[in-house]
Structure formats: C-alpha cells, structure tokens
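Shipment paperwork, digital attachment
Item: protein structure file
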Amino acid sequence: MSNQHAEHTPDRQDGQAEHAEQVETLEAFYTDVKRLGHWTRSRTIEVRTRRASVHLDLRSAQIPAGEIELRLHSERSTLKLLLPEDAVLQESGLALAGRCKIKDRERHAEHSGRVVRLTGTLQHSEIRVARGGVATLSAMFSREFLDDARTAHRDGTEPVLPDPGKEHGTP
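Attachment content:
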C-alpha cells in the first residue's frame, strides 16, 4: 500500500484562474514513487517526502518554457532528478539540515539551458542528478519503460520515456 498523491492546486487566488500557475503536489511517505515521461505540465512542483525514494523526470517537452521550481520538504529521503543535458541546477534557496548531499557529476560545468531552482528544506536527505544519456538509461531501466514500450508497440507509436523532450507522434 502506498501513500502517493499527485494533485493540481492553484498557486494564486487572484481571480485569474486561467492564467494562474498550477502547482503539482507530490507526496511520498515510506514508499517509492516514480514520475517518468509526460507526467506534468506544471513549472512549480511541491515534493513532500519522509523516508521515501522519488524519481522525477523533468525532461518533458510538455512542461512550458521557463524556470522550473522544485519546492522540497524532505526528511530522510532520496530524490533522483532526470534533467536535460544543458539544464542549470540552482540550489541556493535550499536549506540543508543534518547530513545532506547533492550529487551532480556536472555541478561545476557551465550549463546554459533551462533553470531548475531547488527551494525548501532537506533533512538527512540526498538529491541525485542524472543528465543526458545517464538520465535516459535511468528511465529505460524501469518497469515504467517496459509498460510504455508495450503500449507504444500496441498503438504503433514510439516509446516516450527514453526521450520525453522530443515530440512524439504516430509514424
């Protein structure tokens, strides 16, 4: 039994419901959660975890252009981010409490793509970042990829999970 939820709630209550930015909320308590492929169209994602493992794929072409904000409230959890090759990860708004790690092999390399801003609090937690080919392999070695490949084969399309950043259609 898992306690995973994904819901859309308005970020602002200013009467402009059609122009209000949607906040995607993801909760994971004592479980594993994977959101791969085209799972959201929101640029603001709130993640609340406690003793959980969460995989988030932020390579989708369906996420509108602009900065992506991840609002994290994580306690003793692991968050794996699948990012495009040239994404910029900004962690200056992230408070670290206890033993926390942010593992990004390309942390100090110059990137000029989409900005992913991390805010909130990590308590005894870890963030692992996978980019480009490593992100593709991480998505492909999952149960969700097998389901995606079977659906694509049945429908005569291409699987979305290896590269959700490109436009997919029927051949």
